[in-house]
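S2.1 Query sequence (histidine kinase)
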Amino acid sequence: MLIGNGSMLVIALVFAGWTGAAIWALVTGLQMRRSASTARRQLRRLTRLVDSGPAVPLIVRSDSRIEGPEKVARWLGLAKLPPYLSELAQEDKGLPRDALDALGKQITTAQKSGAPFETAVTALGSNRRLRIEGKLADPQTIAPGAVLLWLYDATESETRMAALADAEAEAKRAFDALSGLIEAAPIPMWFRREDLSLLLVNTAYVRAVGGQDAADVVQAGQELVETIDGLTPMAVAARAIESNAPSSRTVTTTIAGTRRAMEIVDLPIRGRGVAGYAIDVHDLILARQATDRFRDAQRDMLDNLSAGVAQFDAQRRLIFVNQPFVRMFALKPQWLQDGLEFERLIDRMREAGRVPEVRDFPVWRDEKREWFHSAEPKEEVWLIPDGTHLRAIAQPTPDNGLLLVFEDRTEQVQLASARDTLLRVRTATFNNLFEALAVFTSDGRLHLWNTRFGAVWDVEEGVLAQHPRADELLKAIAPRLKRPAQISALREVIRAATLDRVQRAGQLVMKDGRVFDFVGIPLPDASALFTMIDVSDAKKMEDALRERNEALVEADAIKTRFLANMSYEFRTPLTSIGGFAELLASGVAGPLSEQGQDYAKAIIDSVERLSAQINMVLDLSQSQAGTLPLKLELTDIGALLVDVAKGAAGLAGGRNIALELDVKGQPGSAEVDRARFGQAIAAVVDNALRYTQEGGRVLLLGDRFRGKLRIVVSDNGPGLDARAQARALDGVLQADEAGGKPLQKRSGLGLPLAKNLIEAHGGRMELMSEPGAGTIVTILMP
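Output C-alpha cells follow.
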C-alpha cells in the first residue's frame, strides 16, 4: 500500500504531537513527584518537630472522633490511639473516668462558647502527669466544631517543682534551726555587712556586752572586743576580707564585767560580709598552764626516779628523756639536742654497749619500731653484755607516740637468785633439822613444814601439800597422842601465836612413849612458827638427874649436919687441951724446961688454929644451909674497913707486903651484920696477903659505884687461871695452883665462906684474875 506525502505528513504531525504530549506528561509527573517528595519531607519534619516538642496535639471533632500522634497513646499507656474520645478511659489504662468526663464537658463548653480551658490529669497506665490546654480549632484549617488539645508532660516539671518546694521548705527549716542554734549558742556570735557594720548578734553577744537586746546592740554598734595594739575589731574584719581567709586571735577582754581570755574568729563570706564568733578560752589557758606546770613537775619527778624514761612523738622523735635514762645508756648531751630519732637512739645505745647482743641487729631494731603501732604495752628483759639486767616497758601513747621505761633489775635479779639460794638452803636446813617445824599463816593454814614434821605425826606429804587448816590437821593427828585431849593445848599455842602474837610452850606425850617439847613463836609477817623437839632421852636423863640430885641434896644435908655436930664435938676436947696447955705453960704443974715451954706454946697455937678452922667450917656449913644467923644493923663501912686493915696489919708486916686502904670515896653506911660482914672482908684480905709474894702490894678500896656499895681487894700476886678461879671459890684450891705457897697451910675455905656471907647479905662477889697479873675481888652490895 502506498502512502502519500500528505499522509506521511499527517502521521509525522500526529507522532510529533504524541511525542510532545509524552514529554509534557513526563515533565509534569516529575514536577509532581518532586512536590510530593518535598511535602513528605516537610510532613516528616513537622511530625518530628511535634514529637520532639514539649506538647502533643490532639484534635477532637464535633462527633467526638479524635486524631493525633501515637505519642498520645504512649503517654496514656495505651497500645494505640482509639478513634473516639470516650475510649481514652479503659480499665487500668488511659485516663480516669471522672477526669475524662470532666474533660468532655470542658470540650463541649469550648465548642459552644469558643472559650479556652486548662486542666491537669494523671494517666492510669503510665502514672504520667499531663497538663491539657484546649481551644476551638480554626474551621478553615482543621474542621468546623473541632477542638485542638495540647497535651504537656508535666511529670518531670511538677516533680522538680515539688522537689524545689520541699528543698525550699527544708532550707527554711534549716535556716530557722541554724538561726535558733546561733541564738541559743553559749558563745557570742555576730555578722557584719560588707561595710563591716554589725547586722546580726545573738543573745550571748548581748549578754557579753551588757546590752538590752540585739536591736539596741546593733543600733549602737557595741563591739565585743576593745581596740588592741591600735587594731579595732572592724580593722581585723577588713583584713580577713582582704586575705579572704579566716582570722583568729586570742585577746583579753571584759565579758559580763569579768576579764576573760577570748579566742576571736572572723570568717569572711565573699559578697556577703564577715561572720564572727568568740570562744572563752580563759579556763583552757589556765588548764594549759596547769598542764605545763604538771608536765614540768612530772619531768622533774622523772629525773629523780631510778628508772630511765624516754618519750617519742608520732614522728618517732625523742621529745623527753630523764637523767637516769641518760646515765643508764651513756648518752652524750649533744645527741639529745636535735630531736634524736628512735632508730638513731637505738644505734647510739648500741655504740655505748647498752643493748643486748643479737645476731641480726637491723632486724632486731626494726622489730622494736613496731612498738609504735602496738595496741598493748610491750615488756621485754634486756641482758646487757656487762651483766646488767634491764626491764624494758614500751607504752604506746594516744598521740601515736611511745613512752619507754627502763628499770635496772640487776640488783633484784641478784637478790632473787640469792633468795632462791636461801630458799633452797632453808629447805635443806629445815629438812635436816632434828626438830619438827611448821609455819602457820594468820588464817590458820599450814604454809611451810619440814620432813621431820610429817614423820613425827606420820602424815603423808600429799596431805600436807594441800595446806590444811590447823583445826583439820590437829583433828587428824589427835589419835596419835597418849592423851588426845592435849590437842587443845596445841590448838591454843597456834592460836596465841597467830592471833594474840604471844609465844607459848608446852609438852606432849605420844602413844609410843615419846615426849616432845613444843612452842609457838609469832613471826613478823603475822604467821607463826610451830616447833617440836623430841626430849624423850632428855626427859629420862632429867628424871634420873632429879633423883640423883635429890639424893645428893639429902647427902649434903647429912654432911652439913655431920660437920656441924662434929664441930661441936671437937670444941669440947680442944677446949680441954687448950686449957691444960695454958696451965702447963703457967707452971701450975711445976716449972717446965725451955723445950717444954716450946711444946706447950705449940699446943696452944695448934688449938687456936684448929678452933678457927672448926668455926670456919661451922659457919660455912650454916651459910650453905641458909641457917647462919645475921644481926643486921646500920654500920659505918669506912670504919669497918679501917678495923679490917688494922687486923691484917700484922700479917702484912710479917710478909713485908704493903697494905693500902682507900676510903676517900665515902662508902657510907649499910645495913649489915658487922661481925659477919667484917669476917668476909677480912677473909678476902687474908687470902690476898697469904698468896702475894713478899714485897708485894694489896689494896683495900671502899666507895659507891652506880648507886651500890663497892669493896675491892686487889693484889699483884701470881694470879690464877680460869680453872684455878673456879676451884678457889669451891674451897679446894691448893697452894701450888695459886702460883706460890702461902705463909701457912690453910684449908682454902676463906673465899667460899666470904662468898656465902656476902650472898647472905644480898650482895655478890666477883673474882677476876690472870696468871702473872694479880687478882681482883669485887664485892657489890645493894
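The domain at 629-781 is CATH 3.30.565.10 (Heat Shock Protein 90). The longest strand covers residues 258-269.
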